[in-house]
Structures are given as structure tokens and as C-alpha cells.
């Protein structure tokens, strides 16, 4: 049974930093993309960034590029999201998710962790 468990959310001031973690278990994730999504109040969930578990290739949406960094620790089966220079518009529930690289949809999801950036 696949489980994705996020942690590390919290309250931070504008310009501050947070590091989110996503502990993955239940299968090997070779051939998978691990992604971070977020959902702000009253808005739809949006994709933020992803990393290829096998090759390490990353992708970021423009709004977080150069501020957020996704990384992974294969030994710990954990994906991280380092968030710097946080802005109030980054406030959201952040979700970790997984999908197959080829012809996959994000079918595995964590429960989410709240990130609040105060102005």
C-alpha cells in the first residue's frame, strides 16, 4: 500500500523559508515522478514542481522557479521541497503526489501540509 506523508508546514513571515518533506513507502518509485501541488483557499489545486525519481530531472512552474528547490533522498525514500523567499501568495495546503513517468496520472497523494506566509 503506497503512502505519502508530508510534514514541515507551518507559519512563516514573508521572505522566510520552510522545508517540506514527503516520506514515501509501499513500493519502489523507480520510473515515477514525484510532484508537489498546492491548493490555496478558494482556488483549484495547482502543480508546483516535480522530480524524476530515477534520473533526478526537475521541473518548476515559473512562479516558484529560483525560489523553490525539489530534491530527493533515495536512501530515505523521501522527497523535499525547500521553499525560500516565501510570499503571502504561497499560502496553501501543499500536497505530495506520485505518478508513473510514462502515461501516468498522479494517482498517489499525501494528506497535505499547511503553509501560511504572513505579510
- Helix content percent band: under 10%
Biggest sheet architecture = 7 strands, mixed
Distance between the termini: 40 Å
Secondary-structure-derived class: mainly beta
What are the low-pLDDT stretches, counting only 5+ consecutive residues below 50?
none
- Work out the number of β strands: 11
Work out the strand percent. over 45%
Number of separate helices = 0
What can be said about this structure in brief?
The chain is 0% helix and 54% strand.
Could you characterize the architecture of this molecule?
With 119 residues, the protein is an all-beta fold. It has no helices and 11 strands. The protein has strands at 3-7, 10-13, 18-25, 32-39, 46-52, 58-60, 68-73, 78-83, 92-100, 108-109, 113-118. Strands 2, 4, 5, 6, 9, 10 and 11 form a 7-stranded mixed sheet that branches. β4 (32-39) and β5 form a beta hairpin.
Q: Layout of helices and strands, plus pairs?
A:
Blueprint: E1 3-7, E2 10-13, E3 18-25, E4 32-39, E5 46-52, E6 58-60, E7 68-73, E8 78-83, E9 92-100, E10 108-109, E11 113-118
Keywords:
mainly beta; seven-stranded mixed β-sheet; four-stranded antiparallel β-sheet; 0% helix
